[in-house]
Amino acid sequence: MNLAGIDLLAKAPYAEGDVFLGGRWLPAADGRTYPVYDPATGDLIRHVSAAGEEDARAAIGAAESAAAGWRATPPRRRSEILHDTFELMREHTDALARLIVLENGKAYRDAAAEVGYAAEFFRWFAEEAVRIDSSFGDAPAGGYRHVVRRHPVGVTAFVTPWNFPAAMATRKIAPALAAGCPVLLKPAPETPLTALAVAVLLTEAGLPEGLLNVLPTDRAAEVGSAWLGDERVRKFSFTGSTATGRLLLEQAAANVVNVTMELGGNAPFVVCADADVDAAVRGAMDAKMRGGGEVCIAANRFYVHADVAAEFTEKFGAAMVAVRAGSGLAEGVTLGPMINQPAVDKIRDLVADALARGARIAAQGEVPDGPGHFHPATVLVDVPDDARILHEEVFGPVAPLTTFTDEDEMLARANATVHGLASYVYSRDVGRALRLAERLEAGMVGVNRGLLSDPAAPFGGVKQSGLGREGGREGIEAFLETQYIALDWP
Ligand code: ADP
């Protein structure tokens, strides 16, 4: 097993089974640990801490102690630390990418791209840290002044998923620190090592102790409840499934905690009759196959105009068959293993259901023999509207294709979902593409582009895909409170 990425942790006094709490590397309070496995081989990577309620509370205390100092730290200094972290992440791209491949499984190419994306949140929010607006002006009725100021919301707690072990953490950490808030992070149980490595680099960049606390654990509910049940936690940001998000929203209600939720998607990918089919195939590969399809904005279902359906199916099928599956670190591999066996079983179930209802496999790639949780790149055609795969998040390398002739009817099908995260439209007519984009119920639309994510743009969903936005000018808002002062003088 290639453990090169773990060397990053050797930069800190990290010992196997430690949490990062109050600037120190310590075992969990009750000393418990759990194993993390490599999804490409099933081999044990390391044991990490199984933090519990006591650690969760201690982390709140550490964050609370650091809050006043950080709030008083000049924004320029906060910005410099974030910028230095950006540089350090870039410098250590290879080691971070290897760590991501090791615990998540994705292809090295995707992991390296993730490190770039994750690092950019530090650059973007380093730039935003010094541009937090306040205002001072006359009350419209005259006679007194309106002062509107922004201040950090306070201790913030994050729960993140395994599909982007670095980026889902930095997308939250960077704006929170930029705004002046201390951070508590519970990474996904499957991918805690990358989050610990990010903590190492932030520390090296000069982040004072207590401002980032990382608690790896397989006792997610215990840590989540301890944070949401404590009134010192003022902001909660979650990325994960809609089901878990709903549960956490209920818990957040008790203390009326301010929440941001990035939940599941069911993105339609629309190919119009006037699309550049080759560009649409390239976009479909990006939107479907990045991270093996284990991406919440992944194209989940395809609506292809009947006039170009044969050409699109043939070219897309050829591209999918050419996908090389294997260990993410092997030369030329573009599809790594899925995160675990239940993930593969769920994808297989969705494919079996579609086939039982009349769908056909138009193209399928190969997967290596032996261990590892692999699923082949697959294109399904003739998928009927009632197939589960059109209504549930696939989270894997399977593309169900359907056709359309009427735009309104296609839009009705595309919008018939409780989700509304991303969607994609391919058309050479920008007027048509924009008209469709505006009518698609989604927080984000890629027009003639299969890659949407950009730290400088607001990421987030409508309907049951979430609440709030991350990245862009909007991203820092989640960590700022507005205070209005009516100012008069005697
Ligand atoms: P997935 O199926 O991808 O694991 P989840 O939404 O369950 O999706 O997981 C996303 C994150 O939410 C992970 O960090 C996981 O540990 C965490 N999580 C799951 N259940 C809970 C819970 N009850 N309370 C707090 N965090 C949870």
List keywords for this structure.
490 residues; alpha/beta; seven-stranded mixed β-sheet; six-stranded mixed β-sheet; 13 helices; 20 strands; 37% helix; binds adenosine-5'-diphosphate
Report on the architecture of this protein.
With 490 residues, the protein is of the alpha/beta class. The protein is built from 13 helices and 20 strands. The protein has helices at 53-72, 75-91, 93-104, 108-128, 167-179, 192-204, 220-228, 242-254, 277-289, 306-321, 341-356, 407-415, 430-439, and strands at 18-21, 24-27, 33-37, 44-49, 135-138, 145-152, 155-159, 183-186, 212-214, 233-239, 258-262, 267-271, 299-305, 360-364, 378-381, 398-404, 422-426, 444-447, 466-467, 480-487. It has a 7-stranded mixed β-sheet, sandwiched between helices. The chain has a 6-stranded mixed β-sheet with strand order 9-8-7-10-11-19, sandwiched between helices. A 3-stranded antiparallel β-sheet has the order 5-6-20, with no helix packed on it. It is globular and about 75 Å long. Residues 159-161, 186, 188-189, 220-221, 224, 240-241, 244, 247-248 line the site of adenosine-5'-diphosphate. Belongs to the aldehyde dehydrogenase family. This is NAD-dependent succinate-semialdehyde dehydrogenase. Keywords: Oxidoreductase.
